[in-house]
Amino acid sequence: MTARIAGIGICVPENIITNDDLAKIVDTNDEWIRSRTGICERRISTEDGTSALAAKAAKKALEAAGVSPEEIDILILGTSSPDYNYPSGACEVQAAIGAVNAVAFDISAACAGFIFAMEIVQGFFQAGIYKTALIIGSETLSKVTDWSDRGTCVLFGDGAGAAVLKADEKGIIDMMMGSDGTKGPVLACQSRTLGNFLTGTKPEIGFMTMDGQEVFRFAVKKVPESVEILLKKTGIPKEEIKYYVLHQANERIIEAAAKRLKEPMDKFPMSISRYGNTSTASIPLLLNEMVEHGMLEPGDKIVMSGFGAGMTWGAVLLEW
Ligand code: ACO
């Protein structure tokens, strides 16, 4: 048995922040942001937190799949911006949608979170333990963004994407994932004060910090590398891959990956211009658009690949 995507749903906040809006609060401009990242606008949540966005996306995914909440065996939320340390966002979603029979938990793998969730589910399906899963990538990164740091605040956006996975004969063909903890400081968000007992200090919310050029170098190397590993392992030629659905962090990273893979850009759909980098949500947001535009037919082979803080990376090759 393998994991097949049976339905996708998304939720993005209504509030649109354009590059020009950002130019009013930091020293930046539309031309710089577009040319360096491909981003034109992003959604920023003013009401819903990570769990609320996740629950709304989840309900739509269940509807698309024709699956009831009670049928869900396992519910995984990938997020790097949970509303609380606990209860987990996944447990909040479980309560909100009535997935009463599911085991629910969060995973923290930053922008690789959706891919990691999918691979965890695949393991449970292959072992015959579960048959129906709900995985979600949801972020409100706006709450850990330093809105005075032009180096990071122009990049990110809020949103959620969910997928129902069912155990089936066809679906995931192969997958890989990896992490390198020595690169942790490259992209970090320290939201808890250490040594509270000794120092008496209260926990603080910290902002995200990033070495952008190091992330860029890492992504440009790891994304094509992970895709190549999967193609080699499966023996599937590039010609058979219809689309590469990559984490939407930066248009230039995607272009560089396409160049290294020697594949044409029309195999790399993008939604970054409208949503910015939504971390764990970016892959399901893009997949949802592809479904809505009728770009995927049964039997199509696609590769999905994500990378993010940790550092983490992963890729999945599947038949639609
Ligand atoms: N507007 C205008 N100028 C800016 C801005 C801005 N928003 N941000 C930085 N600059 C300036 C810098 O201060 C610098 O000025 P200086 O030369 O006077 O010092 C100049 O622009 C160049 O800065 P660099 O950091 O060298 O710009 P670079 O070309 O590397 O682009 C960027 C920066 C877009 C962040 C790039 O490094 C990048 O995309 N990295 C990957 C980031 C990423 O993908 N992060 C998330 C991935 S993981 C995840 O998804 C969680």
Please give a handful of descriptors for the protein shown.
globular, alpha/beta, 25% strand, 320 residues, binds acetyl coenzyme *A, single chain
Structure explained in plain terms:
- This protein has 11 helices and 13 strands.
- Helix 4 (about 90-95) links the parallel strand 4 (about 75-80) and strand 5 (about 105).
- The strands form 4 sheets. A 5-stranded mixed beta sheet has the order 1-7-6-4-5, with helices on both faces. Strands 8-13-12-11 form a 4-stranded mixed beta sheet, sandwiched between helices.
- It is globular.
- With about 325 residues, it is α/β, with parallel strands linked by helices.
- The two termini are about 15 Å apart.
- The chain has helices at about 20-25, 30-35, 50-65, 90-95, 115-125, 150-155, 195-200, 210-235, 250-260, 270-275, 280-290, and strands spanning about 1-10, 15-20, 40-45, 75-80, 105, 130-140, 160-170, 170-180, 185-190, 210, 240-245, 300-310, 310-320.
- Helix 3 (about 50-65) packs across helix 4.
- About 35% of the residues lie in helices and about 25% in strands.
- The site of acetyl coenzyme *A has 23 residues, from helix 2, helix 6 and helix 8.
